[in-house]
Specification:
heterodimer, A: about 750 residues, mainly alpha, TATA-Binding Protein, 5-stranded antiparallel beta sheet, about 60% helix, elongated, B: about 425 residues, alpha+beta, 9-stranded mixed beta sheet, 25 strands, about 45% strand, AP_beta (chain A)
Chain lengths: ~750, ~425
């Protein structure tokens, strides 16, 4: 947005800044500088004032220096020549008697993102690292990381790294933490800062001096330390004990994670920690900050996955309050579902029932589905409540209840009678496709128990012409045919009419085909129809599939206190696979533009707070390459082809820790790479075979090989046609996914 | 580690934007617009706290209609980010006064200075108000007139004095028969100190104060809390024997102690509701509500607001309230009656008669009526019964203040 009158304003400001009278009056001078900053914040182009601003930075007033520093850093990349002007006066400031000025000058110089600046940085930084004032050392330490980043691919200066390691023993706690951060960035390629035994114990001893941010960060760095012996491990855990009671939630969570990870071989310790962290987590769940509350709820759900019933006695804490936002209410309802036990089921249902009439339809339906979820265990009570809700005769409520009933009839056959009694009358209220489908299915499948089933279906047949959802028509065909088998006299006529309509008049091909299919099926005799259509009406075992089996704590310990827990694993894998994190610092313009191009198609609601129900569509991340989703390649075919082809490409990727087969498979599926076979988790060597096919028919066969944990992942790719460009795109896509998965797991 | 930090107005205009890392380099507008589009695309009013858009991981908190957002690396700790953003809001409020688009705009220089000291290349440096005050030199500009009552918030501690606030937040569910289903009190003792550094402060709490269910002290009027945690600067040497907290407060505001009470309270709950509702022919509901305040006669509740959801299809409301200062209205957006009572004295009772016209009143209308959601403030009252016995200073005498306040935004009365 160009600022109106920008030219004029800029000219006027230039006049003011170079006016000696203004310069003589500190208040007016600062006012003029502030106006420039204001203009810049509004998006105006103020680059023309650079020389004047640099000059304005050479005054004793620290506030003005800060303003100028902000300006210079923002403008320098656009004007590298002029920025050198600033460097001169900044170097002078580096020797200023005030530590605040020295620190600011260092930060400013290191913040000038322009090539060639490094040579000017070296000396001031070295001086800064040895400065008397901790304020300057803090800035210098982080400045080192910035300088190394500017250098790009050059060799890292060993002396500098050593100096930083020795500064870990600095007096000032913030310098210590900054050293860790700087080393982590500088040594990123080598796997980050090394935490050996002396460093680990030194950090543990310094912990009490740090503020909450430092503590939670150091706790995170300590994750990579592996104690040598059991004694040492328990010594460390003892030292850390106090942090589980910290008043800062982020410290408590970082400490919890460290406990869980360090004690990965001691399930008792882990369970104990999770009991002790209950209090802080619950108070975060009832915190006044909604955002904190939401984050804590996500972690509660994660813990519940391993320890169902862990929070059962505190179920009342998860009752929703009227003014809470939806994302919290949805999480709380999910939690409530998982906490239900014999003692509290009555109260929980009573509470959930209250949400079913919420003014927000989305929330009301969520509550109904939550009750339906509980109904799998406490069928009778729940069906009672759901039936009562039908009395409201509201479209969205009835639709959700009927959908819940359909699933219940399938999973809990004992409630079929109650469901069938509740159904009459629903047909007038339901308008949406999902609800209609559920109702029609119930009428067809359990029609013999519902006296007026044929008449309800007849209404549907009468109105089939105006029915707008093909899925409802399909469901209607099947349901009517089923009901015909049970109650032929009442249904024969309308079945004929429906088939006639579907075959002769229907526009939708799928419906028409279904009609034709049933027509031909009927021609082969009723016995045959029965054999085909009368499948079981319920399958209680399916409910068990939906129930997530108890996960071991170690399966998520590394994800605890990261975004992966907030998003849920599947969503997180998608969110990261979709948009790879650029591993290198230098960002070429084309990569940038690609990022921008993909913005409109990014799903704003992709990583949402409400469970993991709908997965967004995948976008294969390859420019020219488009892989087709279904490749029909059996393991035998794969093996044959694998043996007959030569390897087209080989590469190896860094890998840490074990492989989580599920995550990897999900992530690969997103970009349409199929997994043909995969070794069991923890097997050594671990292998996986993958296949993919692009739209021109070219097949890509891939082998992943991990010799031992914490080594490199060997990737070999074979191709049935030699297409170098396609191979390139395929490898980059594969690499992106694998890196994302590796990043997720390490 | 934070990559970017920004503050947006409710309309999505960027007020403040900082790109700490510069990788990948993006125009500030791009980032904030991307975020705002993501936020507005969310269904309903409240967008999710965490968003991933265009390869950036966003997190945000909302205060006073403003968005305080940040982008982070994928492996960032969500708790740290949210806590930092909340802390940032508190600091900005401390430094610039009440937050609004206007006040931030006026204090652009101050906010810039603060951010400069708070975060360096995406790493949080320090958030201690006192240290920051020594590093930040811009004067705050307040859109409001200068007010003596508000000295603390504009950063002008003139006198040496100390405030101790006992603040309790209630969250209650009362069943239709009047028995409490859920009672939950989140309390904290907050200290605001303008004392010269080095002054030692001793705060004596109720002697019969006990933590946990097993610990019992004395007879009768014990103050019991379930769980309790203290700020790291509080010395608990005298706590177990005499219930005294000792500390040398740094100037500024901090939370000394946090505690929770569940289920049992020494005093009766502040409100009870006695409803009666019946349907009359012609789609009309007659609703008679009696609200009784069970506080001690000398206490009072202020800003009481009762929100009562009513059946769908409601079209109009007629009301008879027991005193003229009350007000009630029908809010069609949330489909509820909003009954507002500015003040209610302990031991007194108020009533209201509402007549609702409802189109197409179904047979199950009772399901849609209620529960009532109350919110209120109880000045000079602590629900847990916790009191501060004494407040002693080691140095020269200075004015000392102890204040109590209970409030609730989640007081559910089932019908």
């Amino acid at each position: 947005m160009p600022y109106l009158g920008g030219e004029e304003a800029q000219r006027e400001l230039r006049r003011a800044l170079s006016n000696p009278h203004v310069q003589a009056d500190p208040a007016r001078y600062r006012g003029a500088v502030l106006r420039v900053i204001r203009l810049m914040a509004q998006g105006a182009d103020v680059s023309g004032l650079f020389p004047e601003m640099v000059k304005a930075g050479a005054v004793p007033d620290v506030v003005q220096k800060k303003l100028v520093s902000f300006y210079v850093r923002a403008q320098a990349p656009r004007q590298p020549q002029l920025a050198l002007l600033a460097v001169n006066s900044l170097r002078k400031d580096c020797a200023h008697p005030s530590p605040a000025v020295r620190g600011l000058a260092l930060r400013t110089m290191c913040g000038l993102r322009m090539p060639g600046i490094q040579e000017y940085l070296q000396q001031p930084l070295v001086n800064g690292l040895r400065d008397k004032a901790s304020y300057v050392r803090r800035a210098a330490v982080l400045g080192c990381a910035k300088m190394v980043k500017l250098q790009g691919d050059c060799e890292v200066d060993g002396a500098l790294v050593n100096e930083l390691y020795s500064l870990l023993r600095d007096q000032d706690p913030i310098v210590v933490v900054n050293c860790l951060r700087a080393l982590e960035e500088i040594l990123k390629k080598e796997g980050g800062v090394v935490i050996n035994k002396p460093i680990a114990h030194h950090l543990l001893n310094r912990m009490p001096d740090l503020d909450q941010w430092g503590q939670s960060e150091v706790l995170t760095f300590l994750l990579r330390y592996k104690p040598r012996s059991e004694d040492e491990l328990f010594d460390i855990l003892n030292l850390l004990d106090g942090y589980l009671k910290s008043s800062s939630t982020s410290v408590v969570m970082a400490a919890t994670k460290l406990f869980l990870v360090l004690a990965r071989e001691y399930p008792d310790v882990q369970a104990d920690v999770l009991v002790r962290v209950k209090g802080p987590l619950l108070s975060a769940c009832t915190s006044e900050s909604r955002e904190l509350c939401f984050t804590a709820l996500c972690h509660v759900r994660q813990i519940l996955r391993s320890l169902p019933g862990h929070f059962s006695s505190h179920y009342k804490k998860f009752f929703c309050s009227y003014s809470e936002p939806h994302y919290i209410k949805c999480q709380k309802m999910e939690v409530l579902c998982e906490l239900v036990n014999d003692e509290n089921v009555q109260q929980v249902l009573e509470e959930l029932k209250g949400y079913c009439t919420d003014v927000s339809e989305e929330l009301a339906q969520g509550a109904i589905f939550a009750i339906a979820n509980i109904a799998r265990t406490y069928t009778e009570q729940c069906v009672g409540i759901l039936t009562e809700l039908l009395g409201l005769q509201q479209e969205h409520i009835t639709s959700a209840v009927v959908r819940a009933f359909r699933d219940l009839a399938w999973l809990c056959p004992q409630c079929t009678d109650a469901v069938c009694q509740a159904l009459p009358g629903c047909e007038d209220t339901i308008q949406d496709s999902e609800g209609k489908q559920a109702l029609v299915w119930l009428l067809g499948t359990h029609g013999e128990k519902i006296p007026n089933a044929p008449y309800v279906l007849e209404d549907f047949v009468e109105n089939v012409k105006s029915e707008s959802f093909p899925a409802v028509k399909m469901e209607l065909l099947t349901a009517l045919l089923r009901l015909f088998l049970a109650r032929p006299a009442e249904c024969q006529d309308m079945l004929g009419r429906l088939l006639y309509y579907c075959i002769e008049e229907e526009q939708d091909m799928a419906v028409r085909d279904r009609g034709l299919f049933y027509y031909r099926l009927l021609q082969s005799g009723v016995e045959e129809v029965k054999r085909v259509l009368c499948s079981p009406k319920s399958d209680p075992s399916l409910g068990l599939l939906g129930d997530q089996s108890k996960q071991p704590v170690n399966a998520w310990a590394l994800e605890f206190n990261t975004l992966a827990t907030v998003y849920g694993r599947e969503r997180w894998a998608l969110a990261t696979a979709q948009q790879p994190v650029e591993p290198s610092y230098s960002c070429s313009p084309c990569a940038d533009s690609r990022n921008r191009d993909t913005v409109p198609e990014a799903h704003p609601d992709t990583p949402m707070s409400e469970g993991n129900k709908e997965l967004p569509k995948a976008h294969p991340d390859a420019g020219s390459l488009s892989l087709i989703p279904d490749v029909s390649l059996t393991a035998e075919q794969f093996e044959k082809m694998w043996l007959s082809l030569d390897t087209s490409c080989q590469l190896s990727l860094p890998w840490r820790g074990p492989v989580h087969a599920d995550t990897m498979q999900t992530a690969l599926r997103v970009v349409h790479i199929q997994t043909i076979a995969m070794s069991k988790a923890g097997a050594q060597p671990w292998k996986a075979y993958l296949s993919a096919q692009d739209d021109s028919g070219c097949l890509f066969l891939t082998e992943l090989l991990l010799e031992a944990a914490d080594s490199e992942l060997q990737v070999s790719v074979k191709q049935n046609e030699a297409k170098p460009e396609a191979l390139q795109s395929f490898i980059s896509a594969l690499r992106t996914v694998l890196e994302a998965v590796a990043g997720l797991e390490s | 580690m934070l990559s970017q930090l920004f503050i947006l107005s409710s309309k999505g205009d960027p007020l403040i934007h900082r790109d700490f890392r510069g990788d990948p380099p993006r125009a500030p507008r791009d980032v904030t617009e991307l975020f705002h589009r993501g936020v507005s695309a969310a269904r309903g009013e409240q967008p999710p706290v965490f968003l991933t858009l265009g390869g950036l991981h966003f997190a945000h908190v909302r205060h006073g209609g403003l968005f305080f957002g940040a982008t982070t690396e994928g492996d960032a700790s969500p708790f740290t980010v949210i806590e930092f953003l909340n802390r940032l809001v508190t600091l900005l409020r401390d430094f610039c006064g009440p937050l609004s688009e206007k006040s931030l705009g006026m204090n652009l220089g101050l906010v810039g200075e603060l951010l400069e000291e708070l975060v360096d290349s995406g790493h949080i440096q320090t958030t201690t108000a006192e240290i920051l005050r020594s590093l930040v030199h811009s004067e705050p500009e307040s859109p409001k007139a200068f007010s003596l009552l508000d000295l603390g918030s504009v950063g002008l501690p003139l006198r040496s004095e100390v405030f101790v606030d006992v603040i309790e937040r209630l969250s209650v569910v009362i069943a239709a028969n009047g028995s409490p289903l859920k009672v939950d009190v989140q309390g904290e003792i907050r200290l605001k100190s303008f004392l010269p550094p080095g002054t030692e402060l001793r705060i004596g709490l109720t002697e019969e104060f006990c933590v946990g269910k097993s610990e019992l002290r004395g007879y009768g009027a014990a103050v019991r809390v379930d769980e309790c945690s203290f700020h790291s600067c509080v010395s608990l040497a005298e706590f177990s024997a005499a219930r005294v907290l000792r500390l040398c407060p740094e100037p500024g505001e901090m939370t000394l102690m946090q505690y929770q009470v569940e289920d049992e309270l020494p005093t009766p709950l502040p409100f009870r509701l006695f409803p009666s509702a019946d349907a009359q022919p012609g789609g009309r509901i007659r609703l008679y509500l009696k609200l009784r305040c069970d506080l001690p006669p000398k206490s009072q509740a202020v800003n009481v607001c009762l929100q009562l959801p009513v059946p769908k299809g409601v079209s109009s409301l007629s009301q008879e309230l027991s005193s003229p200062d009350q007000a009630a209205e029908l809010d069609l957006g949330s489909r509820s009656i909003r009954w507002e009572i500015p003040k209610i004295q302990g031991g007194s009772q108020l009533s209201a008669l509402f007549k609702l016209e409802v189109a197409g009143l179904g047979r199950a209308w009772r399901l849609e009526l209620g529960p009532a959601h109350g919110s209120f403030q109880l000045p000079a009252h602590s629900c847990s019964g916790l009191r501060v016995r004494f407040l002693r200073l080691s140095g020269p005498p200075a004015p000392r203040w102890v204040r109590y306040r209970s409030h609730s935004h989640s007081y559910v009365l089932r019908l």
